[in-house]
Amino acid sequence: MRPSKLQLTWAFPILLVALQGARPGPRTLAEFPDNCEEGEQASGALSLICMPVEREWNGDLVIYAHGYVAFNEPIEIPDLELPDGTFIPDLVNGLGYAFATTSYSINGLAVLEGIEDARDLIHVFGEAHGEPNRVYLSGASEGGLVAALAVEQSPDEFDGGLVSCGPIGDFRQQINYWGDFRVLFDYFFPGLIPGSPFDIPKEVIEDWDELYAPAISEAVNSAPDATDQLLTVAQAPIDEEDPATKEETVLGLLWYNIFATNDGTAKLGGQPFGNLLRIYRGSESDLRLNRKVERVGADQAALDEIEAHYQTSGDLTSPVVSLHTIKDPIVPYWHVLGYGLKVHGSDSGDLYRHIPIPRYGHCEFKTAEVLVAFALLVFQVTGEELTGVEQVLSDPEAWAEYQRLAREHGVMQ
Questions:
Q1: Can you tell me the distance from the alpha carbon of 126 to that of 410, in angstroms, rounded to the nearest whole number?
Q2: Would the pLDDT of 5 be above 80?
Q3: Among 229, 227, 240, which residue's Cα sits nearest to residue 327?
Q4: pLDDT value of residue 84
Q5: Do 293 and 344 sit in the same domain of this protein?
Q6: How far is CA 361 from CA 118, 167, 236, 331, in A?
Q7: Angle between helices 300-309 and 171-188 (to 10 degrees)
Q8: SS3 of 287, please?
Q9: Residues whose CB falls within 8 Å of the CB of residue 20, separated by 6 or more in sequence, listed in order
């Protein structure tokens, strides 16, 4: 139930990232290796803890907060395999760290529940293996916002955070970005998606994969001029060298409108998208576009809820490292710039570092890039260099790339 190449529950949990590509579903309990134990948290969330086997545990714990999962999916441990089939907890354990993750107690918009389940996971781990020396919280996409908020709010529990491709700059503007894309799509491709952009019909959700996504793909490819105008006005990134990313961006953004709108409205206490005063630019006739595009006002209750619970402050007392692709079509790169302004405005600049990745895609990171981000976080927290990387990066090219990036970002001599 995802657009082609976009499944945001897949991730690189060492710190991390939702990856793109066709992947198998989550493992069952019987498929987890013997060094991993699954449990149930007080909230009803499922937990998974994996301990090092071939290397002595260094006493530190890495917790992973996963990305967005549709409201109508089952509660499961997120898939933890990389495209090459590597089981990521093995990679984390190979560095000497304990690994833990949570399903969250709910799907859909689960930021607040994700924070509480991540906090609870520390206690679950402590009861089973003893209190860890340090706890690093990593998160990807929605989990990136979970990680950023939790580290800001609970520096006594989390020693540092690795925030990957998350909406950390402005959550309200993230919702507006998705909402703008839908109303603009309806303007350039009228009638393709039934119902309201702000109240998604049940049949559209149920028939998205079989009926609506294929029809949209055909329309996008049959009307390249309209597609180009849509992407330009919405300021939605593509890879200019790969025309197929136009369709990927369109389907990816519309997937969030279809599967996140009703759930988000219910949990925020109102409809959060508003464009009454928005001026759209970049079409062949901006005057006609701004006269004809659908307009709606946001409910104040939803805006108040966002401001109270979903906006980062940038006020840090524990280090945060962020990792973001420059051409992310789902959670745009401007989030990083916005968060940087917040951090420096709160005089926390020394505790924040960012690694930009010059690539298209949502959380489309290479293993070496993720490991450098984690190494930078470890250095920020401990002042020490991350060890064991060459052993877990068996590919010589990946090791060479890690060395290059690590030197560039000051975590290797």
A1: 33
A2: no
A3: 240
A4: 60
A5: no
A6: 27, 15, 11, 10
A7: 140
A8: helix
A9: 5, 6, 7, 361, 362, 363, 364
CA distance 75 to 117: 13
Check pLDDT > 90 for residue 347: yes
Name residues whose C-beta falls within 8 Å of residue 41's C-beta, 6 or more positions apart in sequence. 47, 102, 105, 117, 120, 121, 124
pLDDT at site 83: 52
Distance CA 327, CA 124 (A): 38
| 63 Cα distance to chain centroid | 15
Q: Coil, helix or strand for 164?
A: strand
Q: Residue 225 half-sphere exposure, CB side, CA atoms within 13 Å?
A: 3
* 101 CB-near residues (< 8 Å, 6+ apart): 13, 47, 48, 63, 64, 65, 66, 77, 78, 80, 121
Residue 14 structure tokens? 């060492």
pLDDT in tens, 56-94: 999 999 999 999 999 999 999 987 776 566 677 888 999
- Look up the domain containing 254 and give its range: 171-306
Considering 261, 285, 306, which residue would you say is the last residue of a domain? 306
Do 367 and 298 share a structural domain? no
Whether residue 132 sits in one domain with residue 26: yes
Q: Is 73 a domain residue?
A: yes
